[in-house]
Specification:
mainly alpha; 2 strands
Length: about 120
């Protein structure tokens, strides 16, 4: 009975959280990308945009795959349990994607020297 409402609430919350996290990461991650690309703002901005698009695709794909239940949701208690478990899974995946992106950005900020040692680039 409440399945349609459940799915609409789940989609609305998931989309809101995904957009909020993507915008926050994009805005605050751009300086790190600029540093990682040695000050090349054009490449950093393009890469940032591509990361956001990939972030949306992965997260919304995950959200849509999680949006199913074999059970009928007849009570608000069942609706809350479904929402909590699925939104919780979305938040965990968002966190994992965030840490993966931070690792990639961290790796961009390091360069190999001629002797094989790594050197951390300093922000200018």
């Amino acid at each position: 009975m409440l399945n349609a409402i459940n799915y609409l609430v789940y989609l609305a919350l998931s989309i809101f959280i995904t957009v909020f996290v993507a915008r926050t990461l994009s805005k605050n991650g751009l300086p790190f990308l600029i540093r990682g690309f040695k000050g090349n703002v054009d490449i950093a901005v393009s890469t940032n945009h591509l990361l956001v698009v990939g972030f949306y695709l992965l997260n919304m794909g995950f959200v849509l795959l999680r949006m199913r239940t074999g059970d009928l949701i007849n009570t608000f208690e069942q609706l809350i349990v479904y929402q909590a478990s699925n939104i919780g899974a979305v938040l965990v995946i968002l966190g994992l994607f965030h840490f993966f992106n931070m690792y990639v950005i961290h790796r961009l900020g390091r360069v190999e020297t001629e002797f094989g040692k790594t050197k951390v680039l300093k922000a200018e």
